[in-house]
Design brief:
Elements: H1 3-16, E1 24-28, E2 32-37, E3 40-43, E4 50-54, H2 56-64, H3 69-74, E5 78-82, H4 84-94
C-alpha cells in the first residue's frame, strides 16, 4: 500500500470520526483505492454506492480543504460514477 493511500485513510477517518453512513470508493489515479463505509476508511477496492476518481493532487487538495469537491467535479478534475446524492453528502464531509 502506498504512503498516499495510508495518509488519506488516516485523514478521512479523522474527518468522518471513524464511521460513514453509506458506501463510497475513492480511486486515486496511479495509487489505489480507498473504501469508506460504516466501518470507516480503509484501503480496498469493493463495490460502493458512489465511486470518485481523481489525481493525487486533486484528492490531497480536497482532503486539505484547498480544493472544493464540487468545483473539482465541475472542472473535470473529479469523476463521479454512481449515486450523485451520495457524492453530494461526501462533498459536505470533505468540505
Amino acid at each position: 500500500m502506498s504512503d498516499v493511500i495510508d495518509k488519506a485513510v488516516e485523514t478521512l477517518n479523522a474527518k468522518i470520526g471513524g464511521s460513514y453512513d453509506g458506501s463510497a470508493k475513492f480511486v486515486i489515479e496511479d495509487e489505489g483505492a480507498i473504501m469508506l463505509d460504516s466501518a470507516g476508511a480503509r484501503a480496498g477496492d469493493e463495490d460502493a454506492d458512489v465511486t470518485l476518481t481523481a489525481s493525487v493532487e486533486t484528492f490531497q487538495g480536497m482532503l486539505e480543504g484547498d480544493v472544493n469537491p464540487t468545483m473539482a467535479f465541475m472542472s473535470g478534475k473529479l469523476k463521479v460514477d454512481g449515486s450523485m446524492s451520495e457524492a453530494m453528502k461526501l462533498a459536505s464531509v470533505l468540505g
